[in-house]
Amino acid sequence: MDNTSQSDDLRLTLDTVDRFVDRHIPIDELRRRDREHAPPFDLMPMLGAAGLLGLPFPTEFGGQALPWSVVARVEERLGYRAAMLGTLFDTTVCFGGMSLLTYGTERQRAELLPRMIRGEALFALALTEPGAGSDAGAIQTRAKKVDGGWRVTGRKTWSSNAKQSTFMVTPCRTDPNARGSRGITMMLIAPDATGVHMTELSKIGNAGLTSWDIGLDDVFVSDDDVMGEVDRGFYNLMSTLHYARAGLAASAVGQAQRAVDIAIEHARDRAQFGQPISAFQVIQHRIADMQMRVDQARLITYHLADLISDGKPCRREAAQAKVIATEALHYVADHGMQILASAGYASESDMQRIWRDARLYTFGEGSNEIQRNIIAKELGL
């Protein structure tokens, strides 16, 4: 694809995003859903009909076969305008679609990708356990081979949107004698399967995500629902997290830019000592630092998107983008709250929503401490 056609595709796609948000989840609706903890699951078929869920997928499945650089810009725009919807976009495309495309079977891709692209199939990642999260190699959920499939027993926790999903992408230990990253297999488990028990978890932010503690009590998983090669699922899981971190970074950039823009608007409007607070150098420098953090995060996120689009190795860059973007978001949300002061602390403030949501991202989808370990390893340390 040449740069001119890619630019045209990007412009048309972002126009589609803006029209969709204006019509279906404008700011007052976003605030209502956050206040009432009402995730926009109902909007997913409409998002599919708009063509947005099929952006990176082959046309044979109903996708548009656009490069990841376009996907990243869409995730950034959704982060800026309707992060709640952006989180569902990310989990659907990254946890579900890219996992299916990368290591799903032909049957799984043929059956599930078109449904996902239409917004009719949602996906969750059931990775975290009471004793395993950042240390994915510590997974204890066991799958025992039986005639025609597997019997899965264990517990997952803090799985986003698990109950509302069509399938949970679930890593299980299939070799009881293996340790660490070996002996893990990826499986598709339906949330309504016999033996699955769910309890919703309460949290302080991210009302666009529901979070679940999941008991797996002798759950049967057919051989047809195994994803990728048995006992080598850890490598597939890393692929899933690779795309998820790229999506999270782009969304974080959008949310961070929104926080900066809110702070700028407030600084211009709020007067103290006979002048707008934007006239004070301390406020100017604080906002300048905020914008520099966002621009730095945007650059590494776009660079990562280009590497993914070109099919180049980018394990280090994915970890870097996740760290830089989520920490930039955390920084600007916190400083934005300081600039807005009591106006930001009010429950109707958009800044406090961004502030509450931002706190998840530095430890969600692989803590930033683990990302630094990955970066160090990639540097040969």
Strand content: 5-15%
> Structural class of the secondary structure composition?
alpha+beta
**Number of strand elements:** 10
In angstroms, what is the radius of gyration? 21 Å
- Shape category: globular
CATH architecture of the largest domain: Up-down Bundle
Return residue spans where pLDDT drops below 50 for at least 5 consecutive residues.
none
CATH class of the largest domain: Mainly Alpha
Helix and strand element order: HHHHHEEEEEEEEHEEHHHHH
Biggest sheet descriptor: 4 strands, mixed
CATH superfamily heading of the largest domain: Butyryl-CoA Dehydrogenase, subunit A, domain 3
Q: Determine the number of helices (DSSP H or I, runs of at least 4 residues).
A: 11
Distance, first to last CA = 38 Å
Number of folding domains? 3
Helix content: 40-55%
| Overall pLDDT level | 94
Cross-sheet strand order for the largest sheet: 1-4-5-8
The quaternary structure here is single chain
Please name the CATH topology of the largest domain. Answer: Butyryl-CoA Dehydrogenase, subunit A, domain 3
